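User: I'm putting together a teaching handout on how multi-component assemblies are represented. Below are the sequence lines for each component of a complex, exactly as they appear in our records. Could you produce the 3D structure of the whole assembly as structure tokens, so the students can see both representations side by side? Please keep the chain order the same as the input.
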Amino acid sequence: MEVKLNTNVLTNNNVAADYNRDLFHKTKTLVINVMSSPGAGKTTLLEETIKKLSKQYRIGVIEGDLATEKDADRIRQLGAKAVQINTHGGCHLDARMVVATLPEFDFEEIDILFIENVGNLVCPSGYDLGQNHKVAVLSVPEGNDKIPKYPQMFMRTELVLLNKVDLLPYLDFDVETAKEDLKGINPESTLLPLSAKTQEGMDSWYSWIDEAYQACLKQ
Amino acid sequence: MHEMALMGDILDIIMKDAESKGIKQFSRIDLIVGELSNAMPDALTMAFEIYKEQNAQLFTKDASLHIQFEEAISECIFCKTVYKPDFKISICPSCHMPSGKLISGETFQVLSYEGE
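Assistant: Of course. Below is the structure of the complete assembly, with chains in the same order as your input.
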């Protein structure tokens, strides 16, 4: 017997993502899915963001890693609520893993939730977690070729934070080429050069968050 | 490389459907896999063979996985040129505007299955 299905393979994930989205929407929580290669500086960026914005917003973080609580511990030291997901070899977070962490948060008490995905420039881009925004972090030492080499990530994100620009004088990274490559893959995406370490350019990122939060309240 | 997990999702989808129809054993699964879907056909085939070996009762001996590959194709919203995108997916090769939209290549579906 032949049965026609025409069902999206990611149906189970998408049902869970819709469940998350519904909860985030009801509780007016802005949710940002942050993705990058390992070592691009996602956790440092979140640490600096929490330091700067914690007076203004109540911030929660879901940390995705294969193993350890190291990243969640770094966030907790700043007084923010952090829940660690260990994927035990899994190369990305999926929406069901996020669902499993929801009871740990009181979303009436959280304005912004950052989801720091597993460090990987490939697989995380394919999974909807129910977030409002997908943001990619790219860092100067990774080189100019990453945008053209990993188009799926950059066509599915709306903002690219180019981190570690304090290293530009020492490396061959060209910011204009990166902007042009990004425009070729996704004309609607924006590249913000910044350094979480020196704070250069971070104000643009904070303004972007403010705007995203205001838009989230108006939904 | 998460094709084992994806194959788990695929089997979950067909097993749920098969339960309602009283189907207990599968002989064929047909998928469509887009070039930009983040899934590799060869790795899916390998994952299928591993699941088949580990769950012999679920599959007939000659059960097979068939994958229809969907190429990435873009179309320019202005001049309507249809083109095979290189990494600059959205740049139209005819009018050079950033106006190309993917019209194919992201699909990842279970098309059908066969079983008794």
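A couple of points students might notice: The interface with chain B takes residues 1-13, 90-92, 122-123, 125-126, 148-149, 151-152, 155, 181, 183-187 of chain A (CB under 8 Å). The mean pLDDT of chain A is 97.
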